[in-house]
Write a structure and sequence with these properties.
The chain is about 45% helix and about 10% strand. It is built from 21 helices and 15 strands. The strands form 4 sheets. The chain has an 8-stranded parallel β-sheet. Helix 2 (about 10-30) runs antiparallel to helix 3 (about 35-55) and helix 7 packs across helix 19 (about 450-475).
Length: about 550
């Protein structure tokens, strides 16, 4: 079946090559007038051979000749675009516009657009940056943030825009290598995802955030429990700059996973430290800790084993009280993570139950505001850096997250677009047409590492350049100066408000100080009073 599928992908090229040969033979038998179709089919054959060899377009390397139909339709898209916007209910305008923006920036093409915005500016949820009549020109747009609290001996000077978690296994080796080489070129970080550090990460040579999830891949015993010696060995790599404990991801929160034995290659087994021929289970919950206090002890342990590198955790906010349990445990033990990454339920994934992607977990904006204010209320905000993830593709997305409390942002979707993802939504089938989300070596070959790594670096650079222009337009000296009052929101009743009214920065230490009172503070305090650093279990009502 696999061989047949591979053959069908190259059927068009095979047919035109055969027709070229037949026309040549026919011309020799019946006359020179048959040289006309011979030339036509010969040109298509040469085009197909060129498609197989060129490095820029993965779709053509996987679908020679036939793949040009896609570019033909793209060429006439402006004429039919209004029809598509009005009739296409399967793909939201955000996805089309975001993909187009990333492709232009990754390829170094002009990203200006005539005739103004296509956003429906009167719709609820529309947001914008307030600009200044005294704009500032920002020359250096290599914006960075130092991550590492008082207990961290190897702080990391991170870019404010990095590659979010995507595992080798979900992505092809070529995709991982292209992302990581691009990260090295641009001087930013690449999160390994829960699949651990593969040979393709190491070949790329870029900075890595080593994600430790419930399966403890890359640092596990045979029974799936955490192995400190294997963790120390991996965490000691120079490429590893930070350690991220994954509690949950936005697109699939509270849900484990299983990689069937049939899909486990030798390379995946090597990276994850798992045996061949056995289903690989990723549990929904960690086995190394089960209470907030145990979680803080685990953080301290990983910091020690890693030689003092920044250690934090990633989560999509679910029960808000549970996050407050963690914060209470920080105060009780004095163990404070160096960073927290807030993922939103709008984040993407290769495959997850539809109900989870659509209806489980808190969106990034609300989750970010909650985490930021809870840490302010506990007096810990200045010790912990906050990252944000969840459909962050453009400079505006970054600016909005920074204004609402983030220190830096991660993106998976944007960087996948940069290496050629066309959102074919075939990630779970192993039939990705551009070689991004597949373990099929022939399909993966279509993704040229050299070409796509330059696109990754270029997309990062141009996005930060756009962020610098937006920051300067707001009259600010750096993106970290964005505050909620620099953002405006349109509400459902057609009124507009400052983001500071919808997502207020609450007072420092208010959870520890009960003197100030308001409805918002009381809501936080009531939940805080129900939180217990000794257990995640809900208290009796």
């Amino acid at each position: 079946m696999h061989a047949l599928e591979q053959m069908l992908r190259f059927t068009t090229l095979a047919v035109v090559a055969l027709m070229t040969l037949l026309c040549l033979v026919a011309a020799a038998i019946w006359g020179p007038w048959l040289l006309i179709p011979f030339v036509a089919f010969g040109a298509l054959t040469l085009l197909g051979v060129h498609d197989l060899r060129q490095p820029d377009h993965s779709i053509l390397r996987n679908y020679p000749v036939l793949g040009h139909m896609r570019f033909l339709f793209e060429g006439i898209r402006p004429e039919i675009r209004q029809y598509l916007i009005e009739s296409d209910q399967d793909e939201e305008p955000f996805s089309r516009d975001a993909r187009s923006l990333v492709y232009q920036r990754a390829k170094g093409q002009e990203d200006k657009r005539p005739f103004g915005t296509r956003m429906r500016v009167y719709d609820a949820g529309y947001a914008w940056v307030t600009h200044s009549v005294c704009p500032i020109h920002i020359e250096d747009t290599d914006f960075r943030v130092m991550i590492g609290g008082p207990a961290c001996t190897q702080p990391y000077n991170a870019s404010i825009y990095n590659i979010s978690a995507m595992s080798f296994g979900s992505l092809s080796g070529n995709a991982i290598e292209a992302l990581n080489k691009g990260a090295k070129m641009g001087g930013f970080a690449h999160d390994t995802g829960e699949g651990s550090v593969s040979r393709y990460h190491k070949t790329g040579g870029g900075d890595l955030i080593f994600q430790v999830a419930s399966g403890y891949f890359g640092c596990r015993n045979g029974d799936g429990t955490f192995n400190p010696d294997k963790f120390r060995e991996t965490a000691s790599l120079d490429q590893i700059k930070m350690i991220e404990i994954k509690l949950s991801q936005g697109a699939n929160p509270g849900h484990g996973g299983m990689l069937p034995a049939s899909k486990i290659s030798e390379e995946i087994a090597e990276a994850r430290g798992i045996p061949m021929g056995v289903d690989c289970v990723s549990p929904a919950a960690h086995s190394a800790f089960s209470t907030p206090l145990e979680m803080m002890a685990f953080i301290a342990k990983l910091r020690e084993l890693s030689g003092g590198k920044p250690v934090g955790f990633k989560l999509c906010i679910g029960h808000r009280r549970e996050f407050m349990c963690m914060v209470k445990a920080m105060l009780e033990t004095g163990v404070v993570p160096d960073f927290i990454v807030v993922d939103g339920t709008e984040g993407g994934t290769g495959a997850a139950p539809v109900e989870f992607t659509n209806h489980v977990g808190m969106p990034m904006v609300e989750g970010l505001a909650f985490v930021h204010n809870t840490l302010r209320g506990a007096g810990l905000r200045d010790q912990i850096k906050i990252g944000a993830a969840g459909k962050i593709v453009s400079a505006f997305d970054v600016a909005r997250a920074l204004a609402l409390g983030a220190d830096w942002c991660n993106s998976a979707r944007g960087f996948m677009f940069a290496i050629g993802c066309i959102q074919a939504q075939a990630c779970h089938t192993n039939h990705c047409p551009v070689g991004v989300a597949t373990q099929d070596p022939v399909r993966a070959r279509a993704l040229d590492v050299g070409s796509k790594s330059h696109r990754v670096a270029r997309y990062h650079r141009n996005t930060l350049k756009a962020l610098g222009e937006m920051t300067g337009a707001a009259g600010l000296g750096q993106p970290g100066d964005f505050m909620p009052q620099h953002m405006m929101l349109r509400l459902g009743d057609k009124k507009m408000v400052e983001a500071s009214d919808a997502f207020t920065y609450l007072p420092e230490g208010f959870l520890l100080n009960t003197e100030e009172e308001s409805a918002v503070l009381s809501d936080y305090r009531n939940r805080w009073n129900r939180a217990d650093e000794k257990s995640f279990a809900p208290p009796p009502f």
